[in-house]
């Protein structure tokens, strides 16, 4: 199955570079649109219904975070930027993006990240993952839901999400079918009113659930 992608960046050279990488390294990925800012990305997402949108953060007219907030229910968004500033990282994750990478990502890593996001998995640049861990280990946060909002099984799945596991890895660890793991994840997102696996992983970190599973 072909993964349909829209590229969003205000620099033509960046859009061209990513398009060349995807064309050269991935036969299963097709670039179906190219947007110069967040407003165009929103319009293309609504018209073309791509599987994944690669989104820059800082752009004229409408920034990537605002655009992500508008289209996260229509498609999956992978943020790509030059800087992992706190306001970018946390703003993008709260907006509902499925991944956050830096633009100097290796071509193979970019291609695999697009595939992972398309599968519904979260991807983070190492520097971003480190930033999240340091942030949540340094402070105690209340996320506004009771422990019994999730079943024990769902709490276990949430803990695995906090460790960055895919549905396949969760299914293997819990010895259940892949579809069962996928259903658990969907229910967790619904019950906690979350938009993505990345947000779920953050909640798991906030609650310290990652230490409850092996």
TrEMBL record:
Residues 143-208 form the HTH luxR-type domain. The modification 4-aspartylphosphate is found at residue 56. GO terms for molecular function: DNA binding. Residues 4-118 form the Response regulatory domain. It holds the Pfam family Response_reg. GO terms for biological process: phosphorelay signal transduction system; regulation of DNA-templated transcription. Keywords: DNA-binding, Phosphoprotein, Transcription, Transcription regulation. PANTHER family: TRANSCRIPTIONAL REGULATORY PROTEIN NARL-RELATED, TWO-COMPONENT RESPONSE REGULATOR. This is DNA-binding NarL/FixJ family response regulator. It comes from Streptomonospora nanhaiensis. The lineage of its organism: Bacteria, Bacillati, Actinomycetota, Actinomycetes, Streptosporangiales.
């Amino acid at each position: 199955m072909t993964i349909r992608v829209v590229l969003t960046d205000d620099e033509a050279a960046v859009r061209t570079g990513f398009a060349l990488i995807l064309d050269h390294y991935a036969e299963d990925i097709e670039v179906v649109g190219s947007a110069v800012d967040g407003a165009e990305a929103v319009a293309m997402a609504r018209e073309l219904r791509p599987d994944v949108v690669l989104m820059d953060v800082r752009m004229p007219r409408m920034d990537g975070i605002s655009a992500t907030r508008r289209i996260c229910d229509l498609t999956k968004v992978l943020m790509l930027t030059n800087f992992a500033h706190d306001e970018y990282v946390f703003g993008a994750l709260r907006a509902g993006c499925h991944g956050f990478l830096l633009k100097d990502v290796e071509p193979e890593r970019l291609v695999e990240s697009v595939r992972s996001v398309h599968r519904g998995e979260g991807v983070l640049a190492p520097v971003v993952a480190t930033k999240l861990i340091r942030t949540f280990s340094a402070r105690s946060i209340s996320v506004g839901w009771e422990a019994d909002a999730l079943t024990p099984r769902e709490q276990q799945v949430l803990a695995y999400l906090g460790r960055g596991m895919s549905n396949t890895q969760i299914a293997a660890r819990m010895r259940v079918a892949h579809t069962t793991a996928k259903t658990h994840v969907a229910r967790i997102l619904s019950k906690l009113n979350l938009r993505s696996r990345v947000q779920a992983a953050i909640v798991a970190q906030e609650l310290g659930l990652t230490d409850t599973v092996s």
